Amino acid sequence: MTPLRQSLRLYLVTDPHLCCGVGVIETVRQAVAGGVSMVQLRDKDARREDRVALALALKEVLQGSGVPLLINDDVEAAVAADADGAHIGQDDMTPARARARLGPGKILGLSCETELAVRAVPPGVVDYLGLGPVFGTRTKTDHKAPIGFDGLAQLVALSPVPAVAIGGLKADHQKAVRDSGADGLAAVSAICGQPDVRAAARAFSR
């Protein structure tokens, strides 16, 4: 298994509203202690300078852990914070432009919700795909219709790069995600805002 596939195993996407009890930084600290293997900083309402400042603080928390930090939808913030990479959607800058800004040594993820989007992934540009939503979720209201595990398996089979499932996933979905062929799953509300963040993450890693 490649290092990237290992990192995708349990992928935390932060939500500032769900994390408001203990804060994003402490949530990430506890989640990584519980087994999270990749972190995506997602805060669509933050100013870029605040996003960069939070990313720098998270880099300190993650130092020495081997857990990559990516920034959602803001490649410029990822560059400014020297994060490990960025994750973009279909309506953000093009993958080619994002890769040009990030450089060759950074991780670039791309959300894909349809077969057409997966087939259009440019070769040699994107490192992994975020596939879904598997289920509907309140943490992202503008998503397409849920694809379920059958739809996930179809997209995974088409993916030219490693893939992570996203969308309303919980710990008891681990087997179904593995059976689909995906390399891992991304969690938001199932970890962020839980009474015991570390235990919530550990439930996935078990």
Automatic annotation (TrEMBL):
<feature type="binding site">
    <location>
        <position position="140"/>
    </location>
    <ligand>
        <name>4-amino-2-methyl-5-(diphosphooxymethyl)pyrimidine</name>
    </ligand>
</feature>
<protein>
    <recommendedName>
        <fullName>Thiamine-phosphate synthase</fullName>
        <ecNumber>2.5.1.3</ecNumber>
    </recommendedName>
</protein>
<dbReference type="GO" id="GO:0004789">
    <property type="term" value="F:thiamine-phosphate diphosphorylase activity"/>
</dbReference>
<feature type="binding site">
    <location>
        <position position="73"/>
    </location>
    <ligand>
        <name>Mg(2+)</name>
    </ligand>
</feature>
<feature type="binding site">
    <location>
        <begin position="137"/>
        <end position="139"/>
    </location>
    <ligand>
        <name>2-[(2R,5Z)-2-carboxy-4-methylthiazol-5(2H)-ylidene]ethyl phosphate</name>
    </ligand>
</feature>
<feature type="binding site">
    <location>
        <position position="168"/>
    </location>
    <ligand>
        <name>2-[(2R,5Z)-2-carboxy-4-methylthiazol-5(2H)-ylidene]ethyl phosphate</name>
    </ligand>
</feature>
<dbReference type="Pfam" id="PF02581">
    <property type="entry name" value="TMP-TENI"/>
</dbReference>
<dbReference type="InterPro" id="IPR036206">
    <property type="entry name" value="ThiamineP_synth_sf"/>
</dbReference>
<comment type="function">
    <text>Condenses 4-methyl-5-(beta-hydroxyethyl)thiazole monophosphate (THZ-P) and 2-methyl-4-amino-5-hydroxymethyl pyrimidine pyrophosphate (HMP-PP) to form thiamine monophosphate (TMP).</text>
</comment>
<dbReference type="InterPro" id="IPR022998">
    <property type="entry name" value="ThiamineP_synth_TenI"/>
</dbReference>
<dbReference type="InterPro" id="IPR013785">
    <property type="entry name" value="Aldolase_TIM"/>
</dbReference>
<keyword id="KW-0784">Thiamine biosynthesis</keyword>
<feature type="binding site">
    <location>
        <begin position="40"/>
        <end position="44"/>
    </location>
    <ligand>
        <name>4-amino-2-methyl-5-(diphosphooxymethyl)pyrimidine</name>
    </ligand>
</feature>
<feature type="binding site">
    <location>
        <position position="111"/>
    </location>
    <ligand>
        <name>4-amino-2-methyl-5-(diphosphooxymethyl)pyrimidine</name>
    </ligand>
</feature>
<feature type="binding site">
    <location>
        <begin position="188"/>
        <end position="189"/>
    </location>
    <ligand>
        <name>2-[(2R,5Z)-2-carboxy-4-methylthiazol-5(2H)-ylidene]ethyl phosphate</name>
    </ligand>
</feature>
<keyword id="KW-0479">Metal-binding</keyword>
<feature type="binding site">
    <location>
        <position position="72"/>
    </location>
    <ligand>
        <name>4-amino-2-methyl-5-(diphosphooxymethyl)pyrimidine</name>
    </ligand>
</feature>
<comment type="similarity">
    <text>Belongs to the thiamine-phosphate synthase family.</text>
</comment>
<keyword id="KW-0460">Magnesium</keyword>
<comment type="pathway">
    <text>Cofactor biosynthesis; thiamine diphosphate biosynthesis; thiamine phosphate from 4-amino-2-methyl-5-diphosphomethylpyrimidine and 4-methyl-5-(2-phosphoethyl)-thiazole: step 1/1.</text>
</comment>
<dbReference type="InterPro" id="IPR034291">
    <property type="entry name" value="TMP_synthase"/>
</dbReference>
<keyword id="KW-0808">Transferase</keyword>
<feature type="binding site">
    <location>
        <position position="92"/>
    </location>
    <ligand>
        <name>Mg(2+)</name>
    </ligand>
</feature>
<feature type="domain" description="Thiamine phosphate synthase/TenI">
    <location>
        <begin position="10"/>
        <end position="191"/>
    </location>
</feature>
